[in-house]
């Protein structure tokens, strides 16, 4: 029986006026408190050639020294290196993951350079999807590793985008929020920079590459986002060394002809990048990743697996079927493994048995041998004993005979002496 | 302080979460601006809150809701002699959008007239459980669509306030049955209704007896002990757990007391001020539900109760009939399927518990 829920006739939501202070204006604070205790995750992917300044820029952005060894140019293929760090500022804990493309642009044949990157991004989405599809899942304590922002480092040639850049960005634009930046911007003069930027943007537009749009629907951030968007792609300079400028230390790069200050807006757009990436839009980047890119991936993946939403009855239906299929598959595998293990076990047991039998046989033989020798020895000993006994009896006989003889002779002698004595006595008298 | 190095093979495993102590940044980066961004986003989207009030008629449920949200959510149901007592339990929902200081809240209040009013109240909790499960089901169906909405509308019941009649003795069998079943599916906050008929000492002893009953029967009401996250939470929640169930009085009329205009009930022997802690514990209930634990209620509903429902649902799918009518699934009679929740809810025999109570 479906539960009938009665609703009053005028059901459209009406705004009610409160006659006093209820207190739910603390709701945003409650929400924020919960989030702070959980901590935030942010994952940045840096795509760019070796030596273009990715690691330095990350160090500069987050004001820390992430230890890393510079990569060589001899990589056989593109590798992704992901490192996680935990940063804390006032009471906010940020789990930052920086993913580096090692060896990008170094190969002679760069056809497949984009592939590892796309596979990495997809793998993170896949992991999240798997966790979400699990029956027993724990999404709230899941460490989100999906890439939230992709900083694409464009080489400062001053002309236009390289074809590798175009191809890679085209492959990535539907999977991740791309923010293109011009690296090592201190090698471009100001007038060239302006032309370079407009050339890049027009190339992106004409090739249909969708880069991340800073949100302009929220009044508080619309203005700043709009003004910043004009300066895309940001021309940045990274530096972790400090140089004395005026009377304070600032991050800068020192050249014989001058000092390029990182945080000076006239020199480069680093401050703008930091504002946009971290201070204004971090949450929006995460949300876009979750609601747009991840949903797209999920939709494609599920459709690939053969589900459709069109028939509302079959959708939950088929998910159950996949679960069942997966479960059966899993059980089947388990059984197979079990069988294998059992077979192995049986084989081992047989071997062991054979060994033991061998050993037993040997032991038996030994035992028999021992027994036999023992018997022989016993016999020998018995023979000897008999001999000995014979000797002893002989000896006894001899002894008794000798004794008898002795006593006889003694008696005879005694008789003789007695006779002699008597004779003597008789002679005396 | 060394950062945790992860160098996985190309595009394979995800980086595992670091175990080093947090890094302090050498200068201001601006990470904490994300809190403001969160706030802005939340205020733009607005909040949703669904509350359900359960109790026998005449216990002051509608008045209580009006007092909680300081507006006429329901017209207080005066005793309507012509309207017969409903034969079956029929749930009524009403939704309002209220706004305070820029924060928009979409509030849905579900009432349960007819609960416990019949002569035979057997299984009167079934429609309520069915409704709650229906909301979970709706959310689940939305969640497993392929093209799903950006923001799934949340109609799940976040909190159920159960009104215990002020008998002064102990929990009745109906209360016990209801609390046992519902505390496994939804956050339940029991309150002693119409507490102005009990003196302060009677309230205290009633409260202690109810707490003893709940403990003996292993009924976990909100705030549940097993979800305390850290020591601060535990301390705060222990204080609350000590005072549950709150003895509340509801009123939506204002009276003049000492020159101040206060909400209260006027009787011949005095005015009971609703917001006065010495008179009743309504402020505690309001603070718990709205000012401090609203987000927590929603989180526990989403992370625990909904997940439990989902696990059971997906596990038993092969047993349930398929075909049309799948979405409007009837709740199984006798309450939800056994929920494998981490907390243990022991079902002791009714007789044992009754023997223990001092009646």
Describe this structure in words.
The complex is a heterodimer of chains A (429) and B (359). Chain A is of the alpha/beta class and 429 residues long. Helices cover 53% and strands 15% of the residues of chain A. Chain A is built from 9 helices and 11 strands. Chain A has helices at residues 27-38, 54-62, 114-133, 163-172, 190-206, 219-229, 270-280, 282-305, 314-428, and strands at 5-6, 14-16, 40-47, 79-89, 92-102, 149-154, 178-182, 234-235, 242-245, 248-255, 258-261. In chain A, a hairpin with a 2-residue loop joins strand 10 and strand 11 (258-261). Residues 7-12 of chain A have low confidence and may be disordered. Chain B is globular, with a radius of gyration of 23 Å. Chain B is 33% helix and 16% strand. Chain B has 9 helices and 10 strands. Chain B is an alpha/beta fold and 359 residues long. In chain B, the strands form 2 sheets. Chain B has a 6-stranded mixed beta sheet with strand order 3-4-2-5-6-7, sandwiched between helices. In chain B, strands 8-9-10 form a 3-stranded antiparallel beta sheet, with no helix packed on it. At the A-B interface, strand 1, strand 2, helix 1, strand 4 and strand 5 of A face strand 1, helix 1, strand 3, strand 4 and helix 3 of B. Strand 1 of chain A pairs parallel with strand 3 (91-100) of chain B.
Q: What layout of secondary structure does this protein have?
A:
The complex is a heterodimer of chains A (429) and B (359).
Chain A: E1 5-6, E2 14-16, H1 27-38, E3 40-47, H2 54-62, E4 79-89, E5 92-102, H3 114-133, E6 149-154, H4 163-172, E7 178-182, H5 190-206, H6 219-229, E8 234-235, E9 242-245, E10 248-255, E11 258-261, H7 270-280, H8 282-305, H9 314-428
Parallel strand pairs in A: 3-5, 3-6, 6-7, 7-8
Antiparallel strand pairs in A: 4-5, 9-10, 10-11
Helix pairs in contact in A: 7-8
Chain B: E1 23-24, H1 33-45, E2 47-54, H2 61-69, E3 91-100, E4 103-111, H3 126-143, E5 159-164, H4 173-182, E6 188-192, H5 200-216, H6 231-243, E7 246-247, E8 254-257, E9 260-267, E10 270-273, H7 282-292, H8 294-315, H9 350-356
Parallel strand pairs in B: 2-4, 2-5, 5-6, 6-7
Antiparallel strand pairs in B: 3-4, 8-9, 9-10
